[in-house]
Structure formats: C-alpha cells, structure tokens
Design a protein that fits this description.
The chain contains 2 helices and 2 strands. By secondary structure, it is mainly alpha-helical. The longest helix has about 35 residues.
C-alpha cells in the first residue's frame, strides 16, 4: 500500500506540472487563432486545432423557489479519495 500511495503522489505532481504547461500552450494557441480570426487550424505536420464556443445552462438553488428545488433537484452520490503526505515533525 505504501508503494501505491507514494507512486500516486509522485504521478499527481507530474500531472500538475504538465497541466500548467498545457494551460500555457492552450492559451497561446487560442490567442493565435483569435488574432488570425480563424476557428480551425491544421499544421503541415498534421496537427489540428478547432476553437468552438459552447453554451451551457445551469440553475442555481438561490434562484429557484424552494418547493421547485425540492421537487426536481437530484442528489448523486459519488466516491472521492483524498491522498496526501503527512508532515512528519522531527
């Protein structure tokens, strides 16, 4: 178990580092596409990017009458796992 926890945390750190890099690259790609006023791009090497605007509708509890919320809202249970390294004081 100890080995799995350690590997999990090391992998999580790598993912966080790569996610930061990906966000930087994504921002630069979006800036380029907006600057060039294009919604799709294909490179000579075969990479492609599409920029789409999507819309989603949400409803918030504070904006809905209580009786409607109680009648139509649903609760979906799910599991979540928290893993962290303890600070060991020496």
């Amino acid at each position: 178990m100890e080995e799995y926890l350690e590997k999990y945390l090391l992998t999580k750190e790598k993912i966080q580092e790569n996610t930061k890099r990906m966000e930087i690259y994504k921002k630069k790609i979006k800036q380029y596409m907006k600057h060039e006023n294009v919604s799709s791009y294909t490179s000579k090497q075969g990479f492609s990017a599409q920029l789409k605007t999507l819309h989603k509708s949400v409803i918030q509890k504070k904006n809905v009458p209580q009786d409607i919320w109680e009648k139509y809202s649903t609760i979906t249970p799910y599991d979540i796992l928290f893993i962290k390294k303890k600070n060991i004081k020496t």
